[in-house]
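Appendix B, example 12.
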Amino acid sequence: MFYAKMSKTITLKADVRDIVGKKVAKFRKENKVPAVMYGNKVASQNLWINDLDFSRVHSKAGESALIELEFDGAKHNVLIHELQHDHRSGKISHVDFFQVNMKEEVETEIPLEFVGESDAVKAHGGVLIKNMDSISVKCLPANLPEKFVIDLSKLATFEDHITVADLKTSDLVEILLEDETVIAVVAAPRTEAEMESLEQKVEEDVTKVAGVVKEEKPVEEKK
């Protein structure tokens, strides 16, 4: 089973921000994160958002779902365009929102969620290979999927594979990849002969590295 999960409306409240530059640092201690909203033919607007509120929204929306950003009594349809993190704490230090025109198509990446278990891995010792973790799409903002759900149980043998053609989505969403593009496949485990050959090659390659000398067994002295 492969399908696109559609997004629900997600609302985030914000406040207009008059303070810019280094002065914003002290407000971060109050769980305020500086943000900016901009877009095509839209004047940029500096904002404050609540740290905890945004974390909840980001965990649901990621950077692909549409968000209703609410401030000054109005709602603005935006996507998360860029996140900046504090290099010490790792916390989000700034957010860029892009205001979209609901009548114009956008191109963005939709995350993949892998579910289920491959019998080729579980029963036959194969190695699961995921070639991507998101899919590029083009559509109107209102039609953006939240994510694509990929069922790995289809991979029962080493000959099976999951491609873009397996994805089920609305005709209103254009996937910007060829149908035959492989999303996931299971590789057969290496044989003992292959493992021995690989180990031998690694050993040979190591001796070719500058400064590495292969240890020789000492020659026994003649009595």
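The chain has a mean pLDDT of 86. The longest helix spans residues 192-207.
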